[in-house]
């Protein structure tokens, strides 16, 4: 009896000690994570001025037990727990996985291990966040020797007042060992929605295809019928909780879009026109207007839709995956017409662009936004200043990048090429606006001599598959 009594006392004491240790660990974990209360997202979040300060290169150390195992299983895209040390501050129990579609597959097939990554602060830790941020990605600059495509496109989107992710450059290490220069990007989820739209009252989707061989009408934002089950590419990819009423409201917006009438009741027209202005300028075929029709986010609130930017490593004419006859001619690419920025079959199946542009008032506004983009970004020196300032900022890190897809000389060539492509593209579009260059595919085919001469440009200098076969 006495022995039993002592055993009970010891057990009770051990349980109490375990509870105390658990509480202490929770407190320490919360302190290390710089947690804000769950759901306390801000329209002016603290993370915007910390990690996403674009005027310096930040640091992230990934502390993980089995990095080799993580790389070996990258294709599974499964989250593992790690600790991130961001600019010297430690954040524990962060979910980490590889990301990408073809970029992930091809990186592995070429025997490389420089994967783009996703870091989710609340995957393993309820309420986990980085100063209010729930999720970020680390972009590896696959097929982008300049390291700048995505950075510059988001800068253009911000200039045009299109809600776009924040981004900044990050020197990544793994367990203290150099891994490479990446672009940290704010992933569109709750924190992004709160920052851009002021509340979580709306809905966010990242439509994507299950198979490119499927019809994918919902991915193209076509109205099919009133059954939510007919829209798996949309509703299976909701980023915020979506109710039956939410789905019904979005389907109703798609139905209105399909009619081409009363579009402002279903589409945030002005914002969408600004989005397409940048999208068409950067010749991004891996997009809503391209072969795949994906790589965008869809935001809906009160039955009104907006399309939001995402994924630009294959912009500026470098997309060719899955295309039987990709365009390689720089004269065609750099002069690509703003009125018909895709082949007829694609255009007819993209109602968010096509049905807006059938309205004369929207078409004129679209052209006016091109004038704004050219005047405020390319014709006043802002673009060159941004590009060269960014080049100087990242140069030492690119030069010493141990996992780079290219040599430093190739990086410098890509930066120069990107600058010339953009300036020639701006010149061509100015000519299209003024009528000296046809603004349609047919018109340019009939008057090829009117185009801006870009025959000396080698688009592949921005980054191509040949680079992946080299060992840097």
TrEMBL record:
Domain of life the protein comes from: Bacteria
Pfam families recorded: CotH
InterPro entries to which the protein is assigned, alphabetical: Spore_coat_CotH_CotH2/3/7
Keywords assigned: Kinase, Transferase
MF annotations from Gene Ontology: kinase activity
Stated name of the protein: CotH kinase family protein
Species the sequence originates in: Candidatus Eisenbergiella pullistercoris
